[in-house]
Amino acid sequence: MRAAGRLAADLLKYIETYVKPGVNTLELNNLCNEYTIKHGAISAPLNYKGFPRAICTSINDVVCHGIPKASDVLKEGDIINIDVTPILNGYHGDTSKTFKIGKVPPEIETLVSDTEKSMWIGIEQVKPGRRVNDISNAIDDFLTPRGYGIVTQLMGHGIGRKFHEEPQIPHFRQNKPLAKLQPGMIFTVEPMVNMGTPDVNFSKEDKWTVRTKDGKWSAQFEHTVLVTETGYEILTMPS
């Protein structure tokens, strides 16, 4: 899992130099897939339950699961979340980041910054003996007073040999105790944060793309986290 996580992080770092105005998301997809194959891995999203691409590219009001396409050309002022999950030697590494394309409006700058902060606030709760709801509530306590909508229909998840395992990791308030954290557990923390309503629409056309219901923009950051004997280890840090 450490090797898979490191590869995922290196892949995200590699693609960052190509994320600029005039580039289309299919180009980003193809570069990521080539890098993944070159490093002895395969792209988990490709053909996963019919998903047609190697990565997810979610622009502006797309919350997640955006499908890379030649017609999606990045322009100054956009934001894009790129979500990568290579499988290396049978194990999954999963990470994502929201990139700003050139100069973005101040409120979008704040959205992106607060979303990343909220992920770290959630991760800082990870310690043996604590519970999943400690992660959820800490993230909610930071975001909700700032007026954001936290997506409730999509969550973090356990990960290992399978792409999605137990436990689920909600990023919004939980009023009941959830799974107790134990050394060796591995899961993603990946808050999806909307400028407006938390409500989303799932595309009827492609069955994948998730957009904010009110058309306002959304950001997301994600790391794969291991529960250690004394706290946590981020598995998706670049080498």
The tally of domains stands at 1
Reported for the largest beta sheet, the result is:
3 strands, antiparallel
Please count the helical segments.
4
Q: Strand pairing plus helix content: what structural class?
A: alpha+beta
How much is the average pLDDT?
Answer: 98
Strand order of the largest sheet: 1-5-6
CATH class: Alpha Beta
> Helical content, roughly?
10-25%
Determine the N-to-C terminus distance: 14 Å
Percent of sequence in beta strands:
25-35%
Query: What is the N-to-C order of secondary-structure elements (H for helix, E for strand)?
Result: HHEEEEEEEHHEEEEEEEEEE
What is the strand tally?
17
- The dominant shape is globular
Q: What name does the CATH topology carry?
A: Creatine Amidinohydrolase
Spell out the CATH superfamily.
Creatinase/methionine aminopeptidase superfamily
**Any idea what the radius of gyration is?**
17 Å
Spans where pLDDT lies below 50 across 5 or more residues = none
What would CATH call the architecture?
Alpha-Beta Complex
